[in-house]
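Below sits our specimen:

——
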Amino acid sequence: MKIRTRKLKTKTVLTLTGDLTFDHVGTVLTAVQKHATTAELEIALSELGELDVAGLQLLYAVQGDRAGADRSVTFTGEAALERLQRMAEFAGLPSVEQG
């Protein structure tokens, strides 16, 4: 898992490259926590490899943690978001926020 960080005027973008699986959840969580006080966080998934249930749970946890308190998170990357949507529907979960 490789994580690139870009700081733009109004938001911080984390681009995930590689697999978001159980083995890499801790790495991604640490990267997200470094930006805990950032008002707008974008997690770019366009270069996402494999995704398992642990990775999906992480995305839901980040979304829930940032809800309210003037902090937002959006997920981008059309193909990855379609996969996330299919996994969520299969599991009976609501959609993740999309950018």
User: Anything to note?
Assistant: The radius of gyration is 12 Å.
